[in-house]
Write a structure and sequence with these properties.
It contains 24 helices and 18 strands. With about 675 residues, the protein is α/β, with parallel strands linked by helices. It folds into 3 domains: about 300 residues, Rossmann fold; about 180 residues, Rossmann fold, CATH 3.40.50; about 130 residues, Rossmann fold (3-Layer(aba) Sandwich), CATH 3.40.50. The chain is elongated. About 55% of the residues are buried.
Length: about 675
C-alpha cells in the first residue's frame, strides 16, 4: 500500500517531468532523483514560512545544482509560496517566475541565483558566516535570535568545480557547523557517467577539509535521510556533507541512470511511462492529488507558528536589549546610520602624495566604528590592499565577532562568499585583491550584478604603474572587462578625495555591486572642493577661456591632465580637464548634464587611461583620440613603465596639439 509520503514524492517527480516536457527544455532527471531529499527537507528538517519568505530566522536553502530547479519550484508551490500551477506550467518561458535556473528576486523563496556550478556551494559559506556573526553580536542568554542553518543540495558538477574546493576549505577551517549540504551522487553528467573524468573519494576529501561526512547508499530511504540530517543538525563544530547515492530519472523505465535524463526532456512517450510507473493517468498533465496538496500545505503552515514563536521571543528581546534591537532593525532595513558621512576623512590639496589604496584604508578605518555591519578582508593581500580594520579582530573558528576576513589565496571563493554575506540582508561585505586577479572572480561579480546585491569589490594595483611585478601582474584589459558587466558600478578614483567619495557612493548604492579600482603608487591630492565623483564625470579644471580641447582621464592619469593643461595654457591653448572615474555613474545623469561636460560642439577630446582603450570611442568621438594600451606590460619600476608607454605630461600635450592640428 502506497503511503502519503510516497505519493507526495512521486507527485514531485511527475510534476518535474511534465514541466520540462511542456517547456521542451530543462533537466527532468535530477529533480526526479532528488524528490525524497526535497521531501524530507521541506516537510521535516527546515524552518521556513511561505507566508513570510523573508523571515529573519528562517533556514536558508540553496539549490547549488541549479539545473534541478523544478525540484525547488515544485516544493515552493506545494508548500504554499507565492507561486501558482500556471507558473509551473510556464517553466523556462519569457518573464516567468520559474526561470531556467533559480533566480534571486524573481520568486520569493529563492535565496540566491544559481546556475554556474559551484557558486551556490560557495555562497552558502557566506550565508553561514553571516549567521555566525549575527548570532555572536545579537544573541543573548535565553535569546537565540539567530540560530538558523544553511541547507544546500549540490551535484557532481558542483563538487568538481574548483570554487567548491576553495569554499569547502574555508568552511572547514572556520568550523562552520551551521552548514548542512546534501551531495546528489547520481554518477551522471552531460557526457555520461562521471567515471569518464571523476573517480576521487569525495567523502575522504571532505573529511580532509575538516567536514563531518555521512554516506547514504540509498537516496530513497526516507528514514536514513531523516536520521542523517538530524545527525548533521546535532554536529555544531564542523560543516556537514551528506553523500547520497541517487538515481537520475528515477521512475523512467528507459532513461533512469543515463545522461539522457539529464539535460533534455524525457519525451512524451517516456513521460507517460513514468506516470504509469507511479500510478498516475498517463493522459493527464500537471496533476496534484488532493491529499498530496493538503499534506504539503500543512507542512508549510507549520512555519507560521514557528515564526510567531520567534516574534514573541524577539519582542521580549527588544524590551531587554533595546539598543541592540534598534541597531539590528536599522542594518536589516538596508539603511545607514545618520551622521556616518561626517566621519569620512578629508585630505588637503597639495599634501603628501598618497596611493588611493592607502586612502581607501583610511576611509575604512574612519567609518568602521559607525557601521557595525561593514566587514571584509582580502585574498591574502591585506598589507597591500589596506583592508584591515585596525581596531578590530579577525573572524575565526573561535572568534565570531571578528570583522577582518582572511580568505586565503582563494579569489573565486572570496567573491562567492561575499555574495552570500550580502544576501543575508544584514551585512555590507567587501573583499580585496589585485585588479589583475579580478579575472579569478568573474562568475561571482557577474552574479552579484544579476542579483542586484551590494558586495564591494576592491581591486588595487590598478595599472602598469604597479611596476616591478611585471607583465603577469599588470592589468590591461581588466577595466574594460569589468565595465562590460551590466549593473556593475566601476569607480577608478583620481586621488585620495575621490577615493573618499567613491566609498560614499559604494556604501549608499544598494541595487548592485561596486568595484573600486585603486593605485599602488602614490599620486597627488587634488582640491576636494571640486570633487563631483557621484556624477561619474565632471569638470575638474576649466580653462580661463572657451576650451578648444577636452582632456579626459581616470585614476592616476588625471594628474597628467592637470599638468598638461598648464603647459597648454602657456602655449595659449585652452583645455578643459574632465575626471571620469565612473562611466556607469555618468550614464545615469540627464542629457543636460552630459552636454555640459561634453558639449556636442566640442569634439576634440583626448582620453588618457593606462589600460585598454576599448569603449572610450563613445566619449572621445571620431575626432578624438585615446592614449591607452593595446599590449601587455613590462617588468620595471612603475614610473619607467609608464614613461615607456607614453603616460607622461609631455605626451599628453603632444597628442592634444596633434588633435588641434588635425593629426591624430
Amino acid at each position: 500500500m502506497k503511503t502519503i509520503e510516497q505519493s507526495a514524492i512521486n507527485t514531485v517527480r511527475v510534476l518535474a517531468a511534465d514541466a520540462v516536457q511542456k517547456a521542451k527544455s530543462g533537466h527532468p532527471g535530477t529533480p526526479m532523483g532528488l524528490a525524497p531529499i526535497g521531501h524530507i527537507l521541506w516537510t521535516e528538517s527546515m524552518n521556513y514560512n511561505p507566508q513570510d519568505p523573508a523571515w529573519a530566522n528562517r533556514d536558508r536553502f540553496i539549490l547549488s545544482a541549479g539545473h534541478a530547479c523544478m525540484l525547488q519550484y515544485s516544493f515552493l508551490y506545494l508548500t504554499g509560496y507565492d507561486l501558482t500551477l500556471d507558473d509551473i506550467k510556464n517553466f523556462r518561458q519569457l518573464h516567468s517566475k520559474t526561470a531556467g535556473h533559480p533566480e534571486y528576486g524573481l520568486l520569493a523563496g529563492i535565496e540566491v541565483t544559481t546556475g554556474p556550478l559551484g557558486q551556490g556551494f560557495a555562497n552558502g559559506v557566506g550565508f553561514a558566516i553571516a549567521q555566525k556573526y549575527m548570532a555572536e553580536r545579537y544573541n543573548k542568554p535565553g535569546f537565540d535570535i539567530f540560530d538558523y542553518k544553511i541547507y544546500a543540495i549540490c551535484s557532481d558538477g558542483d563538487i568538481m568545480e574548483g570554487v567548491s574546493s576553495e569554499a569547502a576549505s574555508i568552511a572547514g577551517h572556520l568550523q562552520l557547523g551551521n552548514i548542512i549540504y546534501l551531495y546528489d551522487d547520481n554518477h551522471i553528467t552531460i557526457e555520461g557517467n562521471t567515471a569518464l573524468a571523476f573517480d576521487e573519494d569525495v567523502a575522504k576529501r571532505f573529511e580532509a577539509y575538516g567536514w563531518h561526512v555521512q554516506v547514504l547508499p540509498d537516496g530513497n530511504d526516507l528514514a536514513a535521510l531523516s536520521a542523517a540530517i538530524k545527525n548533521a543538525q546535532a554536529e555544531t563544530g564542523r560543516p556537514s556533507l551528506i553523500k547520497v547515492r541517487t538515481h537520475i530519472g528515477y521512475g523512467s523505465p528507459n532513461k533512469v541512470d543515463t545522461a539522457a535524463a539529464h539535460g533534455a526532456p524525457l519525451g512524451e512517450d517516456e513521460v507517460k511511462l513514468v506516470k504509469k510507473n507511479f500510478g498516475f493517468d498517463p493522459d493527464k498533465y500537471f496533476v496534484i492529488p488532493e491529499d498530496v496538496a493538503q499534506y504539503y500545505r500543512e507542512a508549510g503552515q507549520r512555519g507560521v507558528k514557528k515564526e510567531q514563536e520567534w516574534k514573541e521571543l524577539y519582542k521580549s528581546y527588544k524590551e531587554k536589549y533595546k539598543e541592540l534591537a534598534e541597531e539590528y532593525e536599522l542594518i536589516s532595513s538596508g539603511k545607514l546610520p545618520k551622521g556616518w558621512q561626517e566621519k569620512l576623512p578629508v585630505f588637503q590639496a597639495g599634501a603628501e602624495k598618497m596611493a588611493t589604496r592607502k586612502a581607501s584604508g583610511k576611509v575604512l578605518n574612519a567609518i568602521a566604528d559607525y557601521l557595525p555591519n561593514l566587514l571584509g578582508g582580502s585574498a591574502d593581500l591585506s598589507p597591500s590592499t589596506n583592508t584591515d580594520l585596525e581596531k578590530y579582530t579577525s573572524f575565526s573558528a573561535t572568534n565570531r565577532s571578528g570583522r577582518i576576513f582572511h580568505f586565503g589565496i582563494r579569489e573565486h571563493a572570496m567573491g562567492a562568499i561575499l555574495n552570500g554575506m550580502a544576501l543575508s540582508k544584514f551585512l555590507i561585505p567587501y573583499g580585496a585583491t589585485f585588479l589583475i586577479f579580478s579575472d579569478y572572480m568573474r562568475p561571482p561579480v557577474r552574479l552579484a550584478a544579476i542579483m542586484e546585491i551590494r558586495p564591494i569589490f576592491i581591486y588595487t594595483h590598478d595599472s602598469i604603474g604597479l611596476g616591478e611585478d611585471g607583465t603577469t601582474h599588470q592589468p590591461i584589459e581588466q577595466l574594460a572587462g569589468l565595465r562590460s558587466v551590466p549593473n556593475l558600478i566601476v569607480i577608478r578614483p583620481a586621488d585620495a578625495n575621490e577615493t573618499v567619495a567613491a566609498w560614499r557612493v559604494a556604501l549608499e548604492h544598494t541595487t548592485g555591486p561596486v568595484a573600486l579600482i585603486l593605485t599602488r603608487q602614490e599620486i597627488p591630492v587634488i582640491d576636494p572642493k571640486n570633487c563631483e565623483l557621484e556624477k561619474g564625470a565632471y569638470i575638474l579644471s576649466e580653462s580661463e577661456k572657451a576650451p578648444q580641447v577636452i582632456l579626459i582621464g581616470t585614476g592616476s592619469e588625471v594628474q597628467l591632465l592637470l599638468a598638461a593643461q598648464q603647459q597648454l595654457k602657456g602655449e595659449d591653448i585652452a583645455a578643459r580637464v574632465v575626471s571620469m572615474p565612473s562611466w556607469e555613474l555618468f550614464e545615469k545623469q540627464d542629457s543636460a548634464y552630459k552636454e555640459k561636460v561634453f558639449p556636442k560642439a566640442l569634439r576634440l577630446r583626448l582620453a588618457v587611461e593606462a589600460g585598454s582603450p576599448l569603449g572610450w570611442q563613445k566619449y572621445v568621438t571620431d575626432d578624438g583620440d585615446v592614449i591607452g594600451i593595446n599590449k601587455f606590460g613590462e617588468s620595471a619600476p612603475g614610473e619607467e613603465v609608464l614613461k615607456e608607454y607614453g603616460f607622461t605630461t609631455e605626451n599628453v600635450v603632444k597628442k592634444a596639439k596633434a588633435l588641434l592640428h588635425g593629426n591624430r
